[in-house]
Each structure stands twice: as structure tokens, then as C-alpha cells.
Specification:
Strand order of the largest sheet of chain A: 1-2-3-4-5-6-7-8
Distance between the termini of chain A: 37 Å
CATH class of chain A: Alpha Beta
Number of helices of chain A: 14
Helix content of chain A: 25-40%
Number of domains of chain B: 1
Distance between the termini of chain B: 60 Å
Number of helices of chain B: 7
Number of strands of chain A: 8
Shape of chain A: globular
Oligomer: heterodimer
Chain lengths: 363, 198
């Protein structure tokens, strides 16, 4: 028999966990962070299809290596399966998704509805983002909405959770139990405002933050120093964004075309000098993780390996950030086994029953 | 049957005009394509301290005129005041008439000029040179707001979390609204109060 895993509801993997004092959600990520363990999150590359298997196959790659999976909301303003849809599928199978909400596509009416819908499906973590501009994506002719911004979105979610009210003041019968996240980018100007901006996000309701890709560790250390001085690290869990670069060419392309990602020359030089650039990119990511995990105030890493998802497990394993801990993993449970024993035969046996036989067995 | 072709928009044409990897200064959002100079706006931000001082005097003056506005009727003065306000603030700050002015909290840099209309701080896409991600030739509204607020006496107002924009107040006079609110607050408190600057 398989022992029950640490953060799992005994009545079913798809059900929320028991509420704990001091926790605002009933999810796994908040438990891991509040226990003081080094958390690992990652991002699911959303499929361009209506097939649920595409989502499950992409989530399976991370099994047993990450604590939560970000369900992106049309990242880069490119059209994909919605984050609500991905979350609905993932929570059914017991995964802990982080539902991203971008302000680009939805107004406050739709967003508040999605928060309730997501929470009802068992989504325990929500990440409030502004979203990329529509010009960045595959449909630049779309109307940018931006009715709320990431800050007022955070505040809206917090009001819904803590005050049990919509933004309009109308009461909710059951408020959503959610762990609120935000994004920060310490690598874009105005640099001296960024730590203060983080404080503003905490005031608005952020409980955890994920950062933009970190390739410049000294710059990140400066940011963290300021955040510590302002006392932010005691109020918020900071997960540093990291990821492997596929090659020096990709790195250069990202640097020139993706605003907000800062890649120093030294990184590109290191990649150019390597025999196997892809391998070096992975090693670089591991080295950065090893450096940032020592920074005081860092609670975890957010591994973004777009189109290199297969490396996430290796990166997490080789960097040793989990220290032997195994995050929740989908496994066959005792009741699954019972169902399989009793009913498994119907999948394999070819029984042709006539209506006459069925009546006979029914009596 | 042939595949239906996707509709070609202006934005698509602009995007296709140069190879994807190229830097395209013309690739700006449609509402900004008409205006390419930011000189006056940047002047206002550089002189944010002066404008802050002026604005607070101006708000006091408007509050002094409260009996006049009330005598004529706020509804009646709305149209002419809005006409003036729209042109003055439009020239000075590239005002978008959201009707709920927060210039004094944002270093005299109008946040509605941000393509994402962010009212609480910069997004993560600010370019290394401090320009906007959406409009590469426009200085980021929030980089400028931070600079402007550093010069101001009450620059720490930039730390306040702003409520979402009330779209129903669009194209109304913020000056009159602030004055009416300050007058109401003064009457409620029965004590002289300095009007909140718009």
C-alpha cells in the first residue's frame, strides 16, 4: 500500500486541503512556503488545442519536482487555452495550479467572476498581473482592456477574500480562499522605485511574488538588500524567476525583442564560448539557482523553461534545492486500486451481452 | 473551399513592414500614432515642484469660488470649465480626461498616457533606456512619474494604492469635482480646510 502524501486530502486528490490557522488558502503552495521549505514553481506551456490530454501530458513532465504550476493567461498576448480552463483540468487531477489573471483581456466584471469560478474549482493560488500589451502578440488588432491594473486587481481579490465583497460592495455568500501572488521585475527601470513598488504590492494584498527571469545576480542582490531594508521579506514570499537559455543566439534575440528581460554580456559570452550551448544554458541556470538560493529572503524559485520543459526536473534535481524533499506527485491511491481491481476487466474483456442476458442477471 | 484569410489590420501592416527581429520605432499603438512629441509633458514633469505649488494655490482659488459655482449651478459651469480644463491639461500633461486626476500623486506625469493605463506603478516591460515597451520612442510614464515625484514636497503620495478608474467619470471636470468634494468636506467639518489639489 502506498502511504498518503503530506499535502493531500484523504477524501480525494482533487479536494481542497484542511484549513490551517494563519493560512488564507487551502492549497499546497501556501503550506510549503509557510513551513519554510524552499518552494519550486514552474510554468505550463499552454496548448493551442481543445484536447485535455495536451494539458495533462504537459503537466506530467513536472510530476514530483514542483510545488505549483503556473497556468498562464495568454502570455505575451498570444492566444492559447485560457488559464481558467487549464486550472479546471489541473485541479481535477490534484495538481496545484497558480491561476494567472492578466488585466489585458478582461474588465473587472469578468475578472471577479473568474476569481469566484477558479476558487470554486479548487484553485488556491492566483497571480495578479498587468499583462503584456496586445502589440506583442499574434493579434495586435485586439482591443487592450486594462480596466484594472495589477495593483487594483490584487486589492480586488483581497477585498473579495477578506471582506467577502465584490468591488461594488455586494456581499459574497462564500468568499474565495486564495493565496495571492504578484510579479515583480527588479531588472527594469526605474530601479530605485522597484523595491518600493514591491511594498505597494504587499500593501495591496500580495502574499507571494514571482520575479522576472534573473540573469544578473548582483543586480538582484541589490534589489533584495533594499527589500530587506524596507522589511518586505518578512511580509512576502519571494520566488526568484530562473530559466535555461537554449543558445547565445536565443539570448541575444530575447535581449533585443522581449522588453523587461535583462541579460548581461557576460552571460552571452559564456554561452558563446561553450561547446554545447544548450547544456551550458542549463548549467548556467543551475549556477544562478545556487547563487540566489543563498540570498536571505528568498523562499523559492520559479523555473520558466519555455519549450524546454523537459529540463525542469533535471535543473531542480541537479541544483539540489529540494534537499531531498519530494513535492506532491500523482500516484495510484488505494481506492484507485480497488476500482481497477473490480472494474479493470471491462477495459480488456470482450463480453458481448445480449439484452436477454442482462435481464436475467438483473433479476 | 479555401482557408479564410485573417483580416489585415493596421497594426498587422505596421508589424509586417519590417522583419520581426528589427527594432521598429513606428510600431506604436494607434491612439498614440498621431502624437509624436513629448516635450511639453516632459517639461511639466521636470517642473513638478512648481506645478505642485501652483496647483495647490489654484485649488484654493477654486474652493474660494465655490459659492459662485454653486450660485450658477455646478451642472451649468461643468461644460465651460471642462472645455478649458481639457485644453489646458491636454497641452500641459497630454491629459486624457479620465475625470479623476491623480497628477499630484504621480509626479505630474499623467498615468492615463501609459498604453496600459497603469495608475499604480510601472509594468515589468520598461526598456533598459527607460522607454515604454508598447511605444519604444515614448519615455515610460512611470519612470518619469518617479523622477517627478522626487522633486515634489508631497512626493511620497506616489506610494498610495490608487483605486481602479471609474469609467463613468470620463470626460467630466476633475477640478469641479475636487472643489465640490472639498467644499462638502469643509462644510461637514465646519472648519477651514485646504482643498485637495487636483
Amino acid at each position: 500500500m502506498i502511504a498518503r502524501q503530506l499535502d493531500e486530502n484523504p477524501a480525494g486528490i482533487h479536494l481542497p486541503l484542511d484549513p490551517l490557522p494563519g493560512h488564507s488558502s487551502r492549497g499546497r503552495l501556501e503550506r510549503v512556503l509557510r513551513r519554510g521549505e524552499f518552494a519550486v514553481t514552474t510554468e505550463l506551456n499552454p496548448p493551442d488545442s481543445a484536447d485535455p490530454e495536451d494539458v495533462y501530458n504537459r503537466a506530467k513532465i513536472f510530476d514530483g519536482w514542483v510545488d505549483a504550476i503556473n497556468a498562464v493567461d495568454a502570455s505575451g498576448a498570444n492566444c492559447h487555452m485560457s488559464s481558467v480552463g487549464i486550472c479546471a483540468l489541473l485541479t481535477r487531477m490534484g495538481y496545484a495550479p497558480i491561476m494567472q489573471i492578466a488585466c489585458r483581456d478582461k474588465n473587472r466584471i469578468a475578472i471577479q467572476g473568474d476569481v469566484l469560478g477558479g476558487a470554486a474549482m479548487g484553485v488556491a493560488n492566483m497571480l495578479c498581473l498587468t499583462g503584456d500589451g496586445v502589440q506583442a502578440g499574434d493579434q495586435p488588432g485586439a482591443k487592450p482592456v486594462f480596466d484594472l491594473d495589477s495593483m487594483s486587481l490584487l486589492e480586488t481579490c483581497r477585498i473579495m477574500r477578506d471582506n467577502g465583497k465584490f468591488l461594488s460592495g455586494r456581499k459574497l455568500t462564500t468568499p474565495p480562499q486564495i493565496f495571492l501572488g504578484a510579479a515583480v521585475n527588479p531588472f527594469a527601470p526605474p530601479f530605485d522605485f522597484r523595491p518600493i513598488h514591491l511594498g505597494k504590492k504587499i500593501a495591496a494584498g500580495a502574499q507571494f511574488v514571482q520575479t522576472q527571469y534573473c540573469f544578473d545576480v548582483p543586480m538582484f542582490k541589490t534589489f533584495m538588500q533594499k527589500a530587506r531594508d524596507l522589511g518586505h521579506t518578512e511580509k512576502v514570499f519571494i520566488l526568484c524567476g530562473v530559466g535555461p537559455l537554449a543558445s547565445a543566439k536565443t539570448a541575444k534575440w530575447i535581449r533585443n525583442n522581449v522588453p523587461g528581460i535583462h541579460i548581461p554580456d557576460a552571460i552571452i559570452k559564456r554561452l558563446e564560448g561553450a561547446q554545447d550551448q544548450k547544456k551550458e544554458g542549463k548549467q548556467l541556470c543551475i549556477d544562478i539557482i545556487n547563487e540566489v538560493k543563498e540570498i536571505p529572503g528568498i523562499s523559492g524559485v520559479h523555473v520558466m523553461a519555455y519549450r524546454q520543459e523537459e529540463y525542469v526536473a533535471e535543473i531542480v534535481d541537479e541544483s539540489g534545492v529540494l534537499k531531498g524533499r519530494q513535492p506532491w506527485k500523482r500516484e495510484i491511491r488505494r481506492d484507485d486500486q480497488m476500482v481497477a481491481d473490480r472494474l479493470g476487466h471491462i477495459l480488456h474483456d470482450e463480453i458481448t451481452e445480449t439484452q436477454v442476458d442482462m435481464v436475467k442477471t438483473a433479476h | 473551399m479555401s482557408e479564410p484569410q485573417p483580416a489585415v489590420t493596421q497594426a498587422t501592416l505596421v508589424k509586417k513592414a519590417a522583419p520581426k527581429s528589427d527594432y521598429k520605432p513606428a510600431d506604436v499603438s494607434p491612439q498614440r500614432r498621431v502624437q509624436r512629441s513629448f516635450a511639453v509633458r516632459l517639461w511639466s514633469i521636470r517642473h513638478s515642484r512648481l506645478l505642485e505649488w501652483f496647483y495647490s494655490r489654484f485649488a484654493d482659488m477654486f474652493l474660494l469660488l465655490h459659492p459662485l459655482w454653486k450660485g450658477i449651478g455646478y451642472g451649468r459651469v461643468e461644460a465651460p470649465i471642462k472645455f478649458v480644463e481639457k485644453r489646458v491639461k491636454g497641452f500641459m500633461f497630454d491629459c486624457r480626461m479620465c475625470g479623476q486626476c491623480v497628477l499630484s500623486s504621480t509626479g505630474m506625469s499623467c498615468p492615463m498616457n501609459c498604453p496600459k493605463q497603469l495608475r499604480n506603478g510601472p509594468c515589468g516591460g520598461v526598456r533598459a533606456n527607460g522607454n515604454c515597451e508598447v511605444e519604444p520612442d515614448m519615455p515610460c510614464v512611470w519612470v518619469k512619474a518617479w523622477e517627478g515625484s522626487q522633486n515634489m514636497v508631497h512626493g511620497d503620495k506616489i506610494l498610495d494604492v490608487q483605486k481602479p478608474v471609474d469609467q463613468s467619470l470620463r470626460e467630466t471636470s476633475a477640478w469641479l469635482r475636487v472643489t465640490a468634494q472639498a467644499a462638502a468636506a469643509r462644510e461637514a467639518a465646519q472648519a477651514p480646510k485646504t482643498g485637495a489639489s487636483a
